[in-house]
From TrEMBL:
Gene3D superfamilies: NAD(P)-binding Rossmann-like Domain, ProC C-terminal domain-like
Species this protein is from: Chloropicon primus
Native organism taxonomy: Eukaryota, Viridiplantae, Chlorophyta, Chloropicophyceae, Chloropicales
Keyword Oxidoreductase: yes
Protein name stated in the entry: Pyrroline-5-carboxylate reductase
Keyword Electron transport: no
GO molecular function per UniProt: pyrroline-5-carboxylate reductase activity
Record family assignment: Belongs to the pyrroline-5-carboxylate reductase family.
Record domain Pyrroline-5-carboxylate reductase catalytic N-terminal: where: 3-98
Single GO BP term: L-proline biosynthetic process
GO annotations of cellular component type: cytoplasm
Length: 268
């Protein structure tokens, strides 16, 4: 069984570790971790049962695959806390938004093989969307290993590295847009008289059901929308309100602005 190391044990590292453990792809005893925050080290040791180290160097020295999971701004300084000997021959996965393979290679010895991945938090429930871009040195068996690891917590897709900023703007950040949407739909239900727990449950199930229809039928979302929309009915009244408030443009702009921010992070 592969030995992992999380360099940074924050929100996303926790979501991935919990997902991997739940799917039994890695046992907690094979997950090494370090975080500068004692509170985060405690979560990994006490809640997840992982091997928590007293440095990034020790965590990486004891792994086959290291997952860089600190904020992009701290990646350079963090990578330098690990000695070249500990990085030697490691498969290094970076989930950091924006930070390019070229930058990552500049931080690591030449023997390290670099893969960038952009997952999202639904890995916690086995429904992540992870896009993967590998550097030239990465072997086909490395790619297979990464794909099989992340496939246990959701779907994986290989992309050109140049697409990763857009992926980050869409699926990396996307759960936040959808949570906001569910919260707002629930507010709408409450505004119309539903009790909050009923409204939130209906909103979340509706989003999940609609998403499943897109994925499972392969039909265009516009066509599926038309199936709900009766002439002079309730849905077209709701759709008109959404169009009137510029909802479609707001989503397009959200993804675009997040993409631009990912590009900015690559320059830090
Ligand atoms: N959250 C998400 O949905 C997603 C995040 N990502 C990427 O994942 C990465 C982590 O994001 P996220 O989990 O949200 O961030 P968090 O801030 O929750 O986690 C990062 C952790 O790293 C710690 N840290 C900082 N410096 C070091 C260091 N030198 N050594 C060890 N640990 C350190 C931080 O401690 P402290 O807080 O004390 O600084 C923090 O606990 C980012 O690069 C982000 O772009 C990718 C996909 C989705
Ligand atoms: O907000 C962020 O920067 C990170 C990257 C993608 C999701 N969260």
């Amino acid at each position: 069984m592969v030995r992992l190391a999380f360099v940074g044990a924050g929100q996303m590292a926790e979501a991935l570790a919990k997902g991997f453990i739940a799917k039994k792809v890695v046992t907690s005893s094979k997950i090494n971790a370090y975080d500068i925050s004692e509170a985060r080290r405690r979560v990994f040791a006490e809640e997840l049962g992982c091997k928590v180290h007293d440095s990034n160097d020790s965590a990486v020295a004891n792994c086959d695959v290291a997952i860089l999971a600190v904020k992009p701004q701290y990646l350079g300084a963090t990578a330098r806390t690990v000695s070249p000997e500990s990085w030697d021959n490691k498969l290094v996965l970076s989930i950091a938004a924006g930070v390019t393979i070229e930058t990552l290679k500049g931080l690591l010895p030449p023997s390290a093989r670099v893969v960038r991945i952009m997952p999202n938090t639904p890995c916690l429930v086995g429904e992540s969307a992870s896009a993967i871009a590998a550097s030239e040195e990465v072997t086909p068996s490395d790619v297979e290993l990464v794909k099989s690891l992340f496939a246990t917590v959701g779907m994986t897709i290989s992309v050109e590295e140049s697409f990763l900023d857009a992926v980050t703007g869409l699926s990396g950040s996307g759960p936040a847009y959808v949570f906001l949407m569910i919260e707002a739909l629930s507010d709408g239900g409450v505004r119309s008289g539903l009790p909050r727990p009923v409204a939130t449950k209906l909103a979340a199930q509706t989003v999940m059901g609609a998403a499943k229809m897109v994925l499972e039928t392969g039909r265009h979302p516009g066509e599926l929308k038309d199936m709900v929309t009766s002439p002079a009915g309730t849905t077209i009244a709701g759709v008109h309100a959404l169009e009137d408030h510029g909802t479609r443009a707001a989503f397009i702009d959200a993804v675009y602005k997040a993409t631009l921010r990912s590009k900015e992070l690559s320059k830090l």
